[in-house]
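Key result, reporting period 2: structure in, sequence out.
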């Protein structure tokens, strides 16, 4: 997972997905900061309309406009964009048809909302189209969506997309293939082909965020299979909110085998001068048993994830919450692991 230079063959479009509650937006923001280190410029794109990126960075809600949102080490910077279907459609009509005014009329009559409601795939076409256009865009382009093979440098070294959850990611990314099958010729077909060419190229990778719990892990395994079946590239597996065990392996093994010395725990509590030593010791022993059970369950999930032929990155649980300082810390953890 890297962005070696502005025009190299490294991955340039990083799609980040994960089950709800796994912290995929936090991971996407941290990844953007990590990739921007060393003087690079990275665009962080939000497509779900939740303004999660703005909250993480402590800024006002993001408009449909690319703007700098954070600095990275050695002169790097992260820009952010919150994509909405209506603005993307107006830009699309202007870009390919010169019909922005007509699009504004459609908006006033509610046609855009109507179209994206009865045909949800239309919304995904617009969102993926905007993200891939940012990947292809080069400095000096007079109109967006233009050719990118003339040697000019890309505007962004990498684009990171905070994408929909794993249950919808394959449909979200593959929607333009369905559009291409319906529109045999014309600008719509050409646009769909261009989007899918970017998504299926070696420049794009889909990264999965999970935590060491059964349901997120299973949804991750299923999502990886769906992405591969769609002919898209799976990138890294990012295990988020990792908690280190509180006790050494021998203690956890004793608890699992039922040979944990509760009597020694009682004596220790008494030596500490605590009241109700036996009751306190029983409560502590119960907590130790629950902790050992959690660690054992996480070990089992790790073993299942070990079967995936993927680079695995890990990020710690931050009990104090996540803000700009914590994002910098997580980005540094990613860089230490090779991002």
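The corresponding designed sequence is given below.
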């Amino acid at each position: 997972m890297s962005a070696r230079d502005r025009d190299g063959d490294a991955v340039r479009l990083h799609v980040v997905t994960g089950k709800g509650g796994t912290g995929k937006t936090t991971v996407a923001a941290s990844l953007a900061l990590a990739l921007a280190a060393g003087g690079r410029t990275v665009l962080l794109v939000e497509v779900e309309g939740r303004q999660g990126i703005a909250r993480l960075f402590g800024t006002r809600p993001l408009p449909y406009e690319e703007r700098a949102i954070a600095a990275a080490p050695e002169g790097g910077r992260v820009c952010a964009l919150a994509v909405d279907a209506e603005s993307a459609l107006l830009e699309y009509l202007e870009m390919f048809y010169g019909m922005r005014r007509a699009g504004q009329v459609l908006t006033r009559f509610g046609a855009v909302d109507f179209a994206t409601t009865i045909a949800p795939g239309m919304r995904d076409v617009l969102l993926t189209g905007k993200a891939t256009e940012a990947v292809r865009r080069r400095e000096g382009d007079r109109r967006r969506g233009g050719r990118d093979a003339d040697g000019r440098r890309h505007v962004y070294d990498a684009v990171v997309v905070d994408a929909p959850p794993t249950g919808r990611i394959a449909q979200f990314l593959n929607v333009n293939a369905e559009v291409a099958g319906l529109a045999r010729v014309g600008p719509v077909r050409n646009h769909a082909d261009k989007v899918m060419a970017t998504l299926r190229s070696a420049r794009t990778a889909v990264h999965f965020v999970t935590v060491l719990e059964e349901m997120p892990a299973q949804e991750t395994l299923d999502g990886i299979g769906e992405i591969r079946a769609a002919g898209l590239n799976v990138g890294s597996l990012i295990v988020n909110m990792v908690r280190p065990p509180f006790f050494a392996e021998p203690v956890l093994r004793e608890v699992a085998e039922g040979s944990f010395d509760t009597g020694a725990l009682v004596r220790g509590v008494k030596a500490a001068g605590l009241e109700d030593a036996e009751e306190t010791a029983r409560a502590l022993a119960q907590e130790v048993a629950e902790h050992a059970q959690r660690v054992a369950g996480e070990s089992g999930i790790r073993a299942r994830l070990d079967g995936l032929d993927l680079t695995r990155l890990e990020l710690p649980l931050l009990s104090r919450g996540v803000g700009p300082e914590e994002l910098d810390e997580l980005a540094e953890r990613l860089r230490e692991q090779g991002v």
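Residues 170 and 227 are 6 Å apart (CA to CA). The domain at 13-243+317-336 is CATH 3.40.50.300 (Rossmann fold). This case is discussed further under Risks and Mitigation.
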